[in-house]
Amino acid sequence: MPIITANGINIAYETSGNPDGPPVLLIMGLGMQLVSWPMEFVQGLEQQGCFVIRFDNRDSGLSAKFDVAGVPNLPLSYVKSLVGWPLRSAYLLSDMAADARGLLDALDIQQAHLIGASMGGMIAQIFAAQYPQRTLSLTSIMSSSGRRGLPGPTRAARRALMQPPPPGAQRDQLIDHMAQTFRVIGSPGFPMPEKLLRDRIAMSIERSLCPGGVARQLVAIAASGDRSPLLQQIIRPSLIIHGAQDPLVPVACGIDTAKRITGAVLHVIDGMGHDLPPQLIPRFLGLIKPFLFDKIAPHAVAG
């Protein structure tokens, strides 16, 4: 796995597809790794002629860890975020956007299409706003503007996200624990096949496991606050995809994001929760393709 120094830290990355095609930077979400992107999605972009760049965010996968910052107290951080008290964070989402820019610098890529999922969507939003000259288009999937007052996770989704694995959990117990979390937040209309879900989790666990990094990323999200003013600065073509049944980042968050980006195209998918189920990969690819090749449809809301 190639590792490159970008923005002053080591970042693990992988490239594939046509080096002469449109560059597409994929930015994953909370605690996820570059291998968390479904291969059907990556291969679909490659088949469209794209040059695909995936990477591990800081504090995940094989990229730099910030263990020296310690593990934050998540319940206390959650209470502070609810009442609007300042949070002490090892870094912010803007630092993670700078990591992505640094990776493009190191790879000598001047501009890229951005596709971000969940926290990755937040990072991509910041990138598109702060580095418009480096951005060709923005696709923000199951993400949010971070505006105060938007609905939060359901009780079940919050409990699943905050619940740690059993003390001393071994591989199979970790897989069981994480599979249960994904079942809670996943797409009710497009359930992930059990074997595929467990295989993906096992692959991620065997590659890297960093619960402290997940906690630090979670606090970074809360500490980064409201991106609404920043979203108004985005000038590149933008696509917002959101699940109508997302229990972790409710659909109102996706609708709000689209409203705050001039000309953004919003697609709400019925039956979709907070994941990238294989049944929806062709639909994702179809929605994104016009943004990669400048054949963008008018503003629309699709069910």
TrEMBL record:
Pfam family, one: Abhydrolase_1
Highest taxon, organism lineage: Bacteria
Gene Ontology BP terms: glycerolipid catabolic process
Alphabetical list of InterPro entries matching this protein: AB_hydrolase, AB_hydrolase_1, AB_hydrolase_fold
Family annotation (Gene3D superfamilies): alpha/beta hydrolase
GO molecular function annotation: triacylglycerol lipase activity
Stated name of the protein: Alpha/beta fold hydrolase
Organism: Pseudoduganella ginsengisoli
